[in-house]
Amino acid sequence: MPTPLDKQFAAFLRRTRGERTYAQLSRKTGVPISTLHRIEQCEQSITLRMLYQIMLRLKCGLKDIFPANVIGQPLSRAAVMRRGRARPKKA
């Protein structure tokens, strides 16, 4: 299940791509076409390395990608557990 940050990044990619093709955005960012498509469809999360690369190539910052109302909001425990990063406490 996509997190709010996944959805915000997907929206940023759609805005940035605009009328460009995935191939054009791929050349600009250095990210494979298939990866861009999966991220835009919220089927794949972005890695920090890829985020950094995209920010450098597009000359943008975190505030350009993630609106202030999303940055700083922690993921719910349920969302983290679904991603397999937390384990429920044993009774």
Largest sheet: none
The total tally of domains equals: 1
Overall helicity: 55-70%
Mean pLDDT: 82
Superfamily (CATH H level) name = lambda repressor-like DNA-binding domains
* Alpha plus pi helix count: 6
Indicate the CATH topology.
Answer: 434 Repressor (Amino-terminal Domain)
Structural class of the secondary structure composition? mainly alpha
Q: What is the level-2 CATH architecture name? A: Orthogonal Bundle
Which CATH top level class fits?
Mainly Alpha
What is the helix/strand order?
HHHHHH
Radius of gyration: 15 Å
Low-confidence regions: none
Total number of strands: 0
Strand-residue proportion: under 5%
Shape: globular
N- to C-terminal separation? 27 Å
Main features:
6 helices, single chain
Could you describe the 3D structure shown?
The chain has 91 residues and is mainly α. It has a single domain (4-82), classed as 434 Repressor (Amino-terminal Domain) (Orthogonal Bundle). It is built from six helices and no strands. The chain has helices at residues 4-17, 22-29, 33-40, 48-58, 62-65, 77-82. α2 packs across α3. The longest helix is centred in the first third of the chain and has 14 residues, at 4-17.
